[in-house]
Structures are given as structure tokens and as C-alpha cells.
Specification:
Layout (H helix, E strand, L loop, with lengths): L6 H17 L5 H10 L18 H13 L6 H16 L2 H13 L4 E4 L15 E5 L2 E12 L6 E9 L6 E9 L5 E5 L10 E11 L4 E2 L6 H36 L11 H29 L3 H30 L11 H12 L4 H12 L7
Parallel strand pairs: 1-4
Antiparallel strand pairs: 2-3, 3-7, 4-5, 5-8, 6-7
Helix pairs in contact: 1-3, 3-6, 4-5, 4-6, 6-7, 6-8, 7-8, 8-9, 8-10
Length: 376
């Protein structure tokens, strides 16, 4: 993979950074989403023949990172174009591609993603949302939690399980569930973290879906699921790196100007060195994120899975440390609304927890990469 970012990526960074700077920390989500769509940033990873930019997750991660670094990240970019758009582009029918991809690319429609369940946690094998054949269609029943942006999404890509006719075992499948489908209800969850995108608990009570609601091959199973989960991890890394960069930039500006003992506090190594270390950690996490995106866009799903998990782990850790050091650098000012750092204390931890915990990533690496035995 290239170790130096190509000129087109540098140009994309500059353009998106300029957009983010215009909107800033007090951005309006709908306005920014609309403008990013018009400029072609939302669909930069989707095929050109369906209105996208013809790029990949590498380009989309740049967009999210730079918006985050400007203080105006768009969480639904992780979900709508990255997960759902990618899955439909790779495995959807021609009708599904025609219906969804142009609209996802131009921002006129969005799609949420539903996988997490109350009793399944990180164990996708315990997902209990099931789909049964109902004549020519499907009957979907189950529960989901911590699903982002369902209230603004036109449909939700639901991970369910169907019975294998040969073995009788349940296997994962993906279904497009319209927001107004009968039996499909949502309840907003009461979150301490305040964000533009809300979290929801979903109930699917015998939701009847047509045959064409199934995305891809019923027998593809995990292949299709991880086609969405690997981009999710990469984009979560981009989200975290952007957040960490924003916090760090606030701290650097403050440390350059704030003078207490005749010199700016940034001249003191107790302040300067931790900020330098935070910068190094963010840069290292970005390199792994770029590697993961490169492997994914090249079609190496196995290697991309390992790198995407590593990138998400590294970015989450780097983000938490950067935010913590930024707040510490500003002291009491770091907790004021003026500097916009206090809210990141909670938000940064999301990168450690979702969409997969750092402990499960360590499990993945110890099992898949190091070949160590499982404890579960």
C-alpha cells in the first residue's frame, strides 16, 4: 500500500476541511449534510454509475475525519453511505441499487443499520431477530438497541437470521425495513451523551416484508455482514481520529497563548510532551486506518478485517487520551461550553465501546492473528 497520501486525497482533505471550517462546532446537521451531499462527499465511496464518486472507504474516511477535526462530525456517514451503501453496492439486486444508491449519494435519503440486541452484545451468534418465509415474502420479528438515527432514516438495514434448509441452523441475513413498515416501532433511548443523532430501541413485531427486501444471497451469511462491519470499524476510527484532532487543536492553541509564569504554558514540557504524544498516537492510528481502508478497497476482506479492528482500537485509545490531555491542558476552561471539550469526554469513550469493544478486538487479534485458543 502507498505510505504517502496521493495528491487527490490531499486535495480532498483540504476541500472538506474548508467545508468543516465554514460550519464549525455550532453546525446545523441538516445543512451540513445537504452541502456535503451537493459537493459529492457523502457518496464519494459509491459507484459512479449510481451517482457516487467512484472512490472507496479510503476517500469516505477522509471526509469524516476532516469534518470531525473541524468540530462538526456526521455520525450518519458511518452508517448510511459506509455500511448500508457499501453492502447494497456489493450485494444488492439491480433494483435495490437503482432505488437506494443514487439517493444515498445525493443525501436525499438515509439508511440506518440495526444489528445490536439487548442480550447479544458483541456475540452476533446470539442475535434473536429472526426472519421466516411467509409465502413469497418474509416475516421479521425481534428487538434492537442503540440504533443511531432511525428517526431521520428512510429505512433500516436490519441484521436478522434465517434457518438454513440443509442444516436447520440459523444464519445471518440482511433486510431493508422501511420506516413506516407495519409492526416496526421505535423508542428513543435516554442517553447521557447529547448528540445530533439520537439512539433508539427498535421493535419488530411480525413485520411483513416482500421478497425483494432481502439484500443479496440468503446463503452468503457472514460474508455480506462483514462487508458492512469492516467499513463501520474503519469509519469509527476516522470519527475518533477527527475528534481527537479537534480536541488537540484546541489545546495547542490555548497552550501557545495562555501565559501564567511569564511564558506560554506550552513552553513547559509537562504540557508540551503529553500533547506531542497525543499527536503521535493519532498519526499512528491514522496510518492503520489508511492501511485498513486500502485493503478493503482492494478487495482483501480477510486482511482488511484484521486491520480495521486494529485501526478502530488504536483510534479509540488515541482519541480518549487526546481529549483527556486537551481538557487537562485547559484546566477549568476545559470544562466550559466556550471551548467545546467537556462534551467530548463522554463522546470519546464511545470510540472505545462501539461498534465493538476494545476487549473483543483484543480477542479477535489474539485468536485470528496470534493463533491463541479461545476462552469462550
Amino acid at each position: 500500500m502507498p505510505t504517502i497520501e496521493p495528491e487527490e486525497h490531499k486535495s480532498l482533505r483540504e476541500a472538506v476541511a474548508a467545508l468543516g471550517k465554514r460550519h464549525g462546532r455550532d453546525f446545523n446537521r441538516e445543512q451540513l449534510w445537504s452541502e456535503a451531499a451537493k459537493l459529492g462527499y457523502l457518496g464519494v465511496n459509491l459507484p459512479e454509475e449510481y451517482g457516487g464518486g467512484g472512490g472507496g472507504i479510503a476517500e469516505l474516511s477522509i471526509v469524516l475525519e476532516e469534518l470531525g477535526a473541524a468540530g462538526c462530525p456526521l455520525l450518519m456517514m458511518v452508517v448510511s453511505p459506509a455500511i448500508c451503501g457499501t453492502v447494497i453496492a456489493r450485494f444488492g439486486t439491480e433494483a435495490q441499487k437503482q432505488e437506494w444508491l443514487p439517493a444515498l449519494a445525493d443525501g436525499t435519503r438515509t439508511m440506518a443499520f440495526g444489528i445490536t440486541e439487548p442480550d447479544a452484545g458483541s456475540n452476533s451468534h446470539r442475535i434473536t431477530t429472526t426472519a421466516h418465509r411467509d409465502g413469497a415474502g418474509w416475516l421479521l420479528t425481534g428487538r434492537k438497541v442503540f440504533i443511531s438515527g432511525v428517526d431521520i432514516a428512510d429505512a433500516t438495514l436490519i441484521v436478522g437470521r434465517t434457518e438454513d434448509a440443509r442444516t436447520g441452523r440459523l444464519k445471518p441475513c440482511l433486510f431493508i425495513v422501511p420506516r413506516d413498515a407495519e409492526g416496526f416501532t421505535r423508542r428513543q433511548m435516554d442517553m447521557e451523551l447529547q448528540a445530533a443523532e439520537k439512539q433508539f430501541e427498535l421493535a419488530l413485531d411480525d413485520v411483513r416484508l416482500p421478497a425483494e427486501a432481502l439484500v443479496g444471497d440468503e446463503d452468503a451469511g457472514l460474508l455480506q455482514l462483514f462487508a458492512g462491519l469492516n467499513p463501520e470499524r474503519i469509519m469509527t476510527a476516522a470519527f475518533a481520529i477527527g475528534m481527537g484532532r479537534y480536541a488537540l487543536s484546541q489545546a495547542i492553541t490555548y497552550a501557545r497563548d495562555r501565559t501564567v509564569w511569564n511564558t506560554p504554558i506550552g513552553a513547559h514540557q509537562a504540557i508540551a510532551h503529553p500533547l506531542a504524544q497525543a499527536h503521535i498516537d493519532l498519526e499512528l492510528a491514522r496510518l492503520m486506518m489508511q492501511k485498513a481502508a486500502h485493503l478493503y478497497d482492494a478487495g482483501d476482506d480477510v486482511a482488511a478485517g484484521e486491520a480495521a479492528n486494529m485501526a478502530k482500537y488504536a483510534a479509540g485509545e488515541a482519541c480518549v487520551k487526546a481529549v483527556d490531555q486537551a481538557v487537562h491542558t485547559l484546566g477549568g476552561n476545559g470544562l466550559t461550553r466556550e471551548f467545546g471539550l467537556a462534551s467530548l469526554i463522554t463522546a470519546a469513550r464511545v470510540a472505545r465501546i462501539a461498534p465493538v469493544s476494545r476487549e473483543m478486538i483484543l480477542n479477535y487479534v489474539s485468536h485470528q492473528t496470534l493463533g491463541l485458543p479461545k476462552s469462550y
